[in-house]
Amino acid sequence: MTYYSCVTQIFTTGDGADSALAVLRAMVGIADSTVEKITAELTLTQFRALRTVAERTPITMGVVAAELAINPSSVTRACERLVAVGLLQRAQNPLNKREILLAPTPKGRQIVDQVDHDRREVLSTVLRRIDPEARTTVVAAFAQFAAAAAVAASTTNNSPVA
C-alpha cells in the first residue's frame, strides 16, 4: 500500500514579499470589516467604485472601470446597484449626450467619509501597538511602499485597493 501525504508547500522569496503578503491580508481584513461595519449591503468592489466616483466627480463608468482595472460590465452592475440604493446619482453629460456621468449622493459621500474615519481609527490602534521607534520606521516604509505601488499601478494599469 502506498501512502501519499498532502503537504502544503511554503515558498519564500527572501525579499520581504512574505511579510508584505501578511500585511496585505491584514489590510484587506481591515478594508472589508470597515465597509461591512458601515453598510453590509455593499461589496468591496461596489465600495471601491463609490470611492472612485466620490474622489473624481463627475466621472463616467468607463473611467471608473479603467481606474479600478476591472471589466466595464462589472463596474456597470456595481454602479447600477449604488444608484438603486441611493449612493450614486446619474446625469447625462451636457457636453456629450451619449455619456452618463456619475456623482455621489450626500449619503454616498457620507459613507466614504465614515469608512475612511473608521479605517484611520483601526490603523491608529494597530500602529500604537508598535514600539514608537519602530513605528516611525514602519510609517516611513508605508509611505515608500505607497509611492512604489502608485508607480507600479500607473505602469501596469492595476489600481490599488480602495
How does this structure look, described?
This protein has one domain (17-156): Arc Repressor Mutant, subunit A (Orthogonal Bundle), CATH 1.10.10. β2 (88-93) and β3 (96-104) form a beta hairpin. The radius of gyration is 20 Å and the shape is globular. With 162 residues, it is mainly α. The N and C termini lie far apart (52 Å). 64% of the residues lie in helices and 10% in strands.
Q: Give the strand order of the largest sheet, numbering strands 1, 2, ... along the chain.
A: 1-3-2
**How large is the share of residues in beta strands?**
5-15%
- The secondary-structure class comes to mainly alpha
User: Would you list the SSEs in sequence order as H and E?
Assistant: HHEHHEEHH
Task: Briefly say what this structure is.
The protein has helices at 17-38, 44-55, 61-68, 72-84, 106-128, 132-156; strands at 59-60, 88-93, 96-104. The chain has 162 residues and is mainly alpha-helical.
List keywords for this structure.
162 residues, mainly alpha, Arc Repressor Mutant, subunit A, 3 strands, disordered N terminus
Mind sketching the topology for me?
Layout: H1 17-38, H2 44-55, E1 59-60, H3 61-68, H4 72-84, E2 88-93, E3 96-104, H5 106-128, H6 132-156
Antiparallel strand pairs: 1-3, 2-3
Helix pairs in contact: 1-5, 2-3, 2-4, 3-4
